[in-house]
Amino acid sequence: MPKLDSTVKNVVNQTLAPMGISQIRYFAQKFSKIPGIIKLTLGEPDFNVPEHVKQAAIKSIEDNDSHYSEQRGTLSLRKAVSGYINTRYNVKYDPENEVIVTIGGTEAIFVSLAAIINPGYKILVPTPTFALYIPIIKVLGGIPVQIDTTPDNFRLTGKKLQEVIDREGEDQVKALILNFPGNPTGFEYSKEQLEEIVDVIKGKSMYVLTDEIYSELTYGVKHTSMVELLPGKTILVNGLSKSHAMTGYRIGYVAAPADFVENAGKMHAYTVTCPSNPAQYAAEEALTNGMDDPKEMRDIYKQRRDYIVEQLNEIGYKTLLPEGAFYTFSQIPKEFGLSSVEFAEKLAEEGKVGVTPGIAFGEGGEGHFRMSYASSMDDIKEAMKRLKVFTDNLKQNA
Predict the structure, then answer these.
(1) pLDDT by residue (tens digit) across 70-127?
(2) Which of 128, 153, 351, 384 counts the most CB atoms within 10 A of its CB?
(3) Do residues 98 and 216 share a domain?
């Protein structure tokens, strides 16, 4: 095996070098090594891709559809994306120049931020939130400004947003990132709550990057998209990973005004050239003929959510009821005297249950832990039994 030559050891991106891997992945991998553990760590649906969607991918392969597609994705898929957004939110995007098909939601986030950030630009990130926003901002030379939303039940208020903009300097703040339904909290924003945010930023020189990857997985509440309220300044990120259990197909998309897409499309082209054809045809089928597919999954997730939230609160972990996605975000009792990392590691080693420590989701997540209920009910029930035994032991020794 080749050993890195000593003359190039220090030839390295100084921003990237000190960063570790995603904390979500780190703890999932670490806990996987513990024999007999039940992992409620990763946010990956435990359902199969709908059959008709799989058949569309198979047909693409059988038709020898093996050449490069257009860089921004097949026009037919971009039309399907545009049609979906128009059906759901009554906002029209031109598939020719206002949509980019990306390699999952992660690339959509990366190319969107790359199109905005110059060195020193400040990007507002309400936390706790998805773990990848902050490192991507840093790699691109921006400054992530974390906003702790725990005092307001994990939602950013208009008042708090204005306070942060005033403190950081309006001329330096270039974007706000919103993720809803949220990972890790599962909380939605109502239309009225979004309007508060819009009132603050509509006259300012800043974008809203809105990651709505869980928009099809809500429970008893209507999802309002930011594109309905502020389309001229909103960058919509979405995809098929969660709604159709297509995580491995890696299809996401960006929808935004044409001038923005022109710039973001350059980074997309430089980075990946184009998405995979079979995956694109599967995504087109999902968006065209499969918009009822998430219903069965959503109903099952809701049953799991109701059970796990009740159990967590009974055991002694304050847990608010999520309105979407497939996560619970629970408070660690202060009397345990454990950080979120210490709690998660102790629970994995002694209780044989894998969870993700709250600090993985930014400063606002400390003191909490995330559980994914994208797992079988049998595993969830056993995990709750183990958690109760573990917690009883903690209380006795507290």
Answers:
(1) 999 999 999 999 999 999 999 999 999 999 999 999 999 999 999 999 999 999 999 9
(2) 128
(3) yes
Please tell me the pTM assigned to this model: 0.95
Q: CA separation (Å) from 32 to 4, 342, 382?
A: 30, 17, 17
Same-domain check for residues 269 and 324: no
CA distance 255 to 238: 9
> Do residues 18 and 345 lie in contact, with contact meaning Cβ atoms separated by under 8 Å?
no
From 268, 289, 310, the end of a domain falls on 289
Strand, helix or coil for residue 100: strand
- Of 145, 113, 104, 84, residue with least CA distance to 260: 113
Question: Residue 242 in contact with residue 78, Cβ under 8 Å?
Answer: no
Quote the domain boundaries for residue 175: 65-289
CA 81 – CA 180 distance, rounded (Å) = 19
Give pLDDT tens digits for 6-45: 999 889 888 888 887 777 888 888 888 899 999 999 889 9
